[in-house]
Amino acid sequence: MTLEETATRIKRMEIRGAGRIARAAAKALLDYSESINDLDQKSYIDRMLRASDLLAGVRPTAVSLPNAVNIISKPLLKAETLQDAKEGLEDRARAFITHSEHAVTRIGEIGARHIRDGDVVMTHCNSEAALQCIVTAHHQGMDIEVYATEVRPRNQGHITIKTLSDAGIRTNFIVDSAARYFMKEVDICITGADAITVNGAVINKIGTSQIALAAKEARVNFLVAAETYKFAPRTILGERILIEERPADEVLPDAILTTLPHVTVRNPTFDITPSEYVDLIITEQGAIPPEMAYTIIKEHLQWDMDNLCTDYPYCEEE
Ligand code: RI2
């Protein structure tokens, strides 16, 4: 797959999920770099920076994407030779993919410790990190039952129930608007995240915040499973996470919409759950309260703090 094809497939959500799009971008940068053998240092760096920009902006909300691209392309800014730049980038791309896969496994191990035998779990959308917690608990012999939402308009819930069913987990498939109705039967909610801000707010699939609200009302714990590269460093500088709004025809066919001249379809893909509705964030570094988001950004995403300072006027160069 070419770099442009990967970008297009991410944009169309043929490749989706915050972790998967980050790994797909890493693989695309790796393949693209490996295919370049005839350029001088400057031309190689220019071309790779353009490729990085293309991938980083293809979906605006999931911070995993720019974070991955920033980690991988960093040698382009510092390398002294073509070989340093190329080997550095390719090594980082491979390391990111491996780290990301291990992170999901580790999150599953840690997350499973927060699930008890007999628990009924509600999840929303299709998060491999959240599902890993549930499936790991099941593999450890716990008797788990799941409520999984449909996830209009793109129906990611269909992928979730296939994974759960294949694993042999008893699963109830519900429409999104039934989440509060069933909350009284639920012991714990676990979702993924596309971005987590410095104040611990969680940006995830539209509808997540309603479920968190219903969970709080019912005194049900609400957990978020997210790799550390889903924390958003630039929120330290006050940058807001842009909520992607996708095309109207995902919600209503054009043929119907054109007959309704006074109707506008709004289709935000994500919403924001404030930190006070989140009990715990399960990362590969451990389970943390949302108030510790700053620590994750500072200690585990240190690489990016350097980048931040290059374009922020009040940061002094060392
Ligand atoms: P993992 C997805 O976004 C969902 O919002 C999901 O909760 C989140 O990414 C995290 O998924 P989309 O690509 O990285 O479906 O845990 O818009 O798989």
Structure characterization notes:
- The chain has 318 residues and is α/β, with parallel strands linked by helices.
- The chain is built from twelve helices and ten strands.
- The strands form two sheets. A seven-stranded mixed beta sheet has the order 3-2-1-4-7-9-10, with helices on both faces. The chain has a three-stranded antiparallel beta sheet with strand order 5-6-8, with helices on one face.
- It binds 1,5-di-O-phosphono-alpha-D-ribofuranose.
The domain count comes to 2
Report the order of strands and helices: HHHHHEHEHEHEEEHEHEEEHH
Strands in their spatial order, largest beta sheet? 3-2-1-4-7-9-10
Enumerate how many helices there are, as a single number: 12
Head-to-tail CA distance between termini = 41 Å
CATH homology-level superfamily of the largest domain? Translation initiation factor eif-2b, domain 2
- Assess the beta-strand content as a share of residues: 5-15%
Secondary-structure content class: alpha/beta
Q: What is the tally of beta strands?
A: 10
CATH architectural name of the largest domain: 3-Layer(aba) Sandwich
Short description:
The chain has twelve helices and ten strands. By secondary structure, it is of the alpha/beta class.
